[in-house]
Amino acid sequence: MVDKKEIIQEIAKLMESDPNATPIEPTVLEFLSEKDLVSVLKNLYKSKETRSEQNEEWFQELCKQP
Q1: Cα distance between residue 23 and residue 18, in whole Å
Q2: Where are the domains positioned within the chain?
Q3: CB contact at 8 A, 40 and 12
Q4: Single pTM value for the model
Q5: For 3-61, what is each residue's pLDDT tens digit?
């Protein structure tokens, strides 16, 4: 099972790569429950997936242009 500190580290990494994420200090995340941290993590992964899909669409459109 993943512990709280590992979840917080993963959240911090994902927030760095997400321009839409609201920056949150890792020390603040320590006050959240594990359930809340997992929810934040899932939302960040969903955002990352959406950005990847948007980038893929943009790239495909770019490839179609002469």
Answers
A1: 9
A2: 4-64
A3: no
A4: 0.75
A5: 999 999 999 999 988 888 888 888 999 999 999 999 999 999 998 888 888 888 887 88
